[in-house]
Specification:
Blueprint lengths: L1 E4 H6 L1 H11 L3 E5 L2 E6 L8 H5 L8 H21 L6
Parallel strand pairs: 1-2
Antiparallel strand pairs: 2-3
């Protein structure tokens, strides 16, 4: 992790943000010898399926089974209940 002063960050903001984005650098910003902020890379992009893919693993066994069952029947229900708002 790199430590920079607030002044240095202000003078080199674009370059430092590029380092965070492309190289995955983490930057600690200090002012008057006190940490005031940390800049870290954002989360990787995920589609909805990837984001929710492991959700059921955080649930207890009963809730997970219910979630899986509901998610599988949801497709049929969703198709039946959807309507075209422009029609």
């Amino acid at each position: 992790m790199r430590t920079v002063s607030a002044t240095e960050l202000a003078r080199n903001l674009r370059r430092m943000l590029d380092d965070v984005e492309h190289r995955g650098d983490e930057i600690t910003v200090v002012r008057n010898n006190r940490q005031i902020a940390r800049i870290i890379p954002g989360a990787q992009r995920q589609n909805a399926l990837e984001a929710l893919g492991d959700l059921y693993r955080t649930l207890d066994d009963r809730a997970a089974a219910s979630w899986v069952r509901d998610s599988r029947k949801g497709t049929r229900t969703l198709k039946r209940d959807l309507r075209d708002p422009w029609r």
